[in-house]
Design a protein that fits this description.
The chain is of the alpha+beta class. 43% of the residues lie in helices and 14% in strands.
């Protein structure tokens, strides 16, 4: 990771340029040489005409989006902006004024002026070489490295760091070659040809929660749900609350559970998903061309593999982007929505798998696993999850040996087997015209052949998701980790239903509650038959448990500053776990753990859920839901899975009836739902992780200053 920043710092009283990088300890010298060479390249040779045009367009589009959202900026953000402006001596402007000034400035800016600014910005680095423009300010180099390492290459001291920097500054650098960035990934001619080869059509949306099929030719509210003739499920929602922004989520059910069910090598889907993120070459376009296409069109892409699905998230502008020229002479590019649909199409039909991308993916996973072993919280969580899951690797960090064993062919076969059109669901929300986007989806995604990636399909494989492992009787675990900072973390874990109320044995919360309440009225039976009942009960229980933990463990007993109750929230796999996490001093860790157990026990018996608890939790859950409905990401999330057979209780009713189901919940519902969790003492898994001081540690005789009032964490460059 490497990042270059320049900003005015009120705290430092000057402008600060910084070059930040993170690297594997043994490769720190290589990272320094490469990063500094790139900055010197910018300072000495400047930007190319193509870069100038692309980044000016992106900057203007960004300013336009901010102007469109100007009346939606929160009071807190406005106040922070005002304070920063005053502290730095800037001119305070509204987003609309800022956009107008930005457009005016960009329309008169020349390449020579930009390159002079680049030379000045980079002078603190280029100036370290004799004969080049130098900066008048201080140059500070800071390195944070492991105190001890088995690899000598990881060692670095002051002299070695300065020597590496000076060595990097003497390397001759060549100007950047201007990359030809495509204005579109799919030409109109190619699209027309695909429309003839694979004529697309809409089909009605189908659901498993009892909702009737939705029409294939009509817009519905609050979202339109349909299927393409090739099998891709589509959900679309118009959300004007985020002006000129959109969010698209592509979900392929499977995830790490599919590695086992379909017989793939362990870790292949997860490593492959990251390799796809690290790669990005489509057809005849290179990775750099595609990457710059995404940058020019302000598209952010994130590809992840979790326990039960492969998820691709795209954030994009809904206006025309990649424009050239200004004012009346502006030539419009395609919209961000069209750009992102082109990327999705290319991922499905023309993705190029590259060995170097796999290498970066593996390096990322190796670093993450090694970091986990050095983190008290990470290693403790891994330890208790290892016990709870009986060592099931679907739910654990991928170790180095497993990562190293994955080949490019393994990763390719695993990921592409998930990208069959019949298994995919696309959910898109944003500030756009629904009919226009539906037409674009029909053209770009409807023309993906129904048998795309059929060669990767695993024949005769079960598509039904497994349940989570059955829990053995509970036990207590202890962990010690060498660290000079004394602290502790404690955990309480146990069995719980999945997000929709299914338990590992196949029964559901609604079923168990109905069986336990012999005096239930017909109205109660009707309420509990609603597909959202289990989900709503668990949401309220989670909120109430968090409040109880806060008031008991922190406020009343003062044993911690943080206690949290969470649920794993699987949607497709039956069953799951709850996890209580509490941080404390080493001396109070056991007491804090006992207090958490007492709180959960009291919730079940001596101090059950009261009407006040319930009403308060309802307000929080409903207000959170209402607030998040203003974001396109939340809409994309709640639409994902609505048409998926592997989540039988998730359908349109989970959104349209959300308020009604939450409001109708009673204390009896929640108390009986609590009995579905493994809260008995004999069922609980507990753990305490503590740090121990390394042998021979010399305590620094440095008095650490308390932070000043209003001073946040981080240095001068933290936003």
């Amino acid at each position: 990771f490497v990042e270059f920043n320049q900003l005015d710092s009120a705290r430092e009283g000057c402008a600060v340029c910084s070059l930040d990088m993170t690297a594997d300890p043994p490769r720190w010298r290589e990272a320094v040489l490469k990063s500094i060479s790139e900055i010197r390249k910018l300072g000495i040779h400047g930007v190319t005409p193509g870069e100038m045009e692309r980044y000016a367009s992106a900057l203007l589009t960004d300013a336009e989006q901010l102007a469109a959202q100007g009346d939606m900026i929160s009071h807190g953000d406005q106040l922070a902006y005002l304070m920063e402006t005053v502290a730095n001596g800037h001119t305070f402007m509204s987003p609309e004024q800022s956009y107008a000034v930005t457009e005016q400035a960009l329309s008169t800016l020349t390449l020579e002026e930009v390159n002079r600014a680049a030379a000045e910005l980079c002078s603190h680095i280029t100036g370290l070489n004799d004969g080049e423009l130098t900066s008048t300010g201080k140059v500070v180099a800071v390195a944070c490295t492991p105190k001890s390492s088995d690899n000598e290459a990881a060692f670095v001291d002051d002299d070695m760091l300065c020597q590496a920097i000076r060595e990097a500054c003497t390397i001759e650098v060549e100007p950047v070659e201007d990359v030809v960035v495509p204005h579109t990934l799919v030409t109109p001619e190619e699209l027309e040809e695909e429309m003839k080869k694979n004529p697309p059509s809409w089909e009605s949306g189908q659901f498993s929660d009892g909702t009737p099929n939705t029409p294939a030719d009509r817009i519905t509210r609050p979202f339109t749900l349909r299927r393409l003739s090739n099998g891709i499920r589509v959900g679309i929602n118009q959300n004007p609350a985020e002006s000129q922004r959109g969010h698209l989520r592509l979900v392929a059910p499977g995830g790490r559970d599919a590695e086992r069910r379909l017989g793939f090598k362990s870790g292949s889907l997860a490593v492959g998903a990251r390799a796809m993120q690290e790669g990005g070459s489509f057809g005849s376009f290179t990775r750099e061309q595609v990457e710059l296409f995404a940058v020019d069109h302000l598209i952010m892409v994130e590809i992840n593999c979790n326990e039960e699905s492969l998820v691709m998230d795209f954030v994009f502008p809904t206006t025309n982007v990649g424009n050239s020229g200004y004012g009346e002479n502006m030539k419009l590019g395609i919209t961000g929505t069209e750009s992102v649909l082109q990327i999705v199409r290319e991922i499905l039909v023309d993705f190029n798998w590259e060995e170097d991308a796999l290498g970066r993916s593996k390096s990322s996973y190796r670093t993450a696993h090694e970091s986990l072993g050095k983190s008290l919280e990470g290693k403790s969580t891994e330890m208790i999850m290892d016990a709870v899951t009986s060592g099931d690797d679907r739910f654990l960090s991928i170790d180095v040996d497993t990562v190293n064993a994955v080949t490019l062919e393994d990763a390719k076969n695993a990921v592409m087997s998930q990208l069959r059109p019949k298994d995919l669901e696309i959910s898109v929300s944003g500030d756009f015209v629904v009919n226009e986007v539906l037409e674009q989806i029909l053209q770009y995604l409807g023309t993906v052949p129904a048998d795309a990636n059929a060669e990767f399909e695993v024949k005769d494989a079960t598509m039904e998701f497994d349940s989570v492992p059955k829990l053995a009787p509970g036990k207590h675990l202890d962990l010690e980790l060498e660290d000079s900072d004394p602290r502790a973390v404690a955990y309480v874990a146990g069995a719980a239903p999945n997000q929709w109320g299914f338990l590992a044995d196949g029964t559901s919360v609604a079923q168990r509650v109905s069986e336990a309440d012999k005096r239930a009225s017909d109205y109660d039976k009707q309420r509990r038959a609603h597909p959202l009942f289990g989900n709503a009960a668990l949401s309220l229980i989670s909120e109430i448990a968090n409040r109880r933990l806060f008031s008991t463990v922190r406020e009343r007993k003062q044993l911690t500053y943080d206690a949290n109750f969470s649920l794993t929230g699987f949607e497709r796999m039956k069953g799951g776990w709850f996890l209580v996490t509490v941080t404390a001093s080493k001396e109070k860790a056991q007491k804090a753990l006992d207090a958490c157990k007492e709180t959960l026990e009291a919730l079940r018996k001596s101090n059950p859920i009261s009407v006040d608890n319930l009403e308060s939790a309802k307000r929080v859950v409903l207000n959170r839901h209402e607030g998040e409905l203003r974001t396109s990401q939340y809409w994309a999330t709640i639409m994902s899975g609505i048409q998926e057979e592997s989540i039988p209780l998730k359908g349109p009713l989970s959104v349209t009836d959300f308020h009604a189901v939450i409001e109708a919940m009673t204390t009896t519902d929640l108390q009986l739902a609590l009995d579905c969790m493994g809260l008995e003492e004999s069922q609980l898994y507990t753990a305490i992780g503590k740090t121990v001081q390394p042998e021979g540690l010399v305590v620094d005789e440095i008095v650490k200053a308390s932070p000043m009032a209003g001073m946040g964490r981080g240095g001068a460059l933290m936003g």
